[in-house]
Amino acid sequence: MKLDLKPLAQQPGEVLPFALQMDLSHMEWNGAKPFAQPICVKGQVSNRAGALELKARLDTVLSLTCDRCAKPFQRRKSLDCQTLLAFELANGESDDIVELNREGELELDGLMQEVFLLEMDTKNLCSQDCKGLCPGCGVDLNLEKCRCKRETDPRLAVLAQLLEPEEPEQ
């Protein structure tokens, strides 16, 4: 979706609302396809005393896999975006300001996709207290206890005996 911002730049105080849905279901992220639902984008570009400001809210539900226990789960992802827009940048590039194309248009899909992907979490957990899988027996530690027998290094066997409960004397 392209937004033509030339008319808005001529009218201080005016607002141009927009809404779109981005389908990223084809895109892989960390070896999975978490974008099963479209990303809903709602926002506006406003002319504030000659400066163009974009504000948007991005919202979706991600289909993820827990990085600890490998169970699939869903999580709502919402974020707010705010940036300034310019027809031309004085020094060529800026991290804070988005430059419009030569026709004074903003390629909204590309910008919103970039904003959303930059805010994706690098680690996904089904819950903050997820215990994960036992590396030895593979059991889900959220559901049951580990079945591994702890092997003691023979060099430390004497010390391990100190940790064993004492039998009561008779």
Would you kindly provide a brief summary of this structure?
With 170 residues, this protein is mainly beta. Helices cover 13% and strands 34% of the residues.
Give the N-to-C terminal Cα separation: 85 Å
Average the pLDDT over all residues and give the rounded result.
84
The main pleated sheet reads as: 5 strands, mixed
Give the strand tally: 7
Q: What's the assembly state of these chains?
A: single chain
Beta content comes to 25-35%
Which percent range fits the helix content? 10-25%
Report strand order across the widest sheet: 2-3-4-5-6
Shape: elongated
Q: Helix tally?
A: 3
Question: Can you put this structure into words, describing what you see?
Answer:
By secondary structure, the protein is mainly beta. Helix content is 13%, strand content 34%. It contains three helices and seven strands; from the N terminus they run βαββββββαα. The protein has helices spanning 6-9, 108-118, 157-163; strands at residues 2-4, 15-22, 39-48, 51-65, 72-86, 97-99, 105-107. Strands 2-3-4-5-6 form a five-stranded mixed sheet, with helices on one face. Strands 1-7 form a two-stranded antiparallel ribbon. Strand 4 and strand 5 form a beta hairpin. The radius of gyration is 27 Å and the shape is elongated. The chain starts with a strand and ends in a 7-residue tail after the last helix. The model has no long low-confidence stretch (mean pLDDT 84).
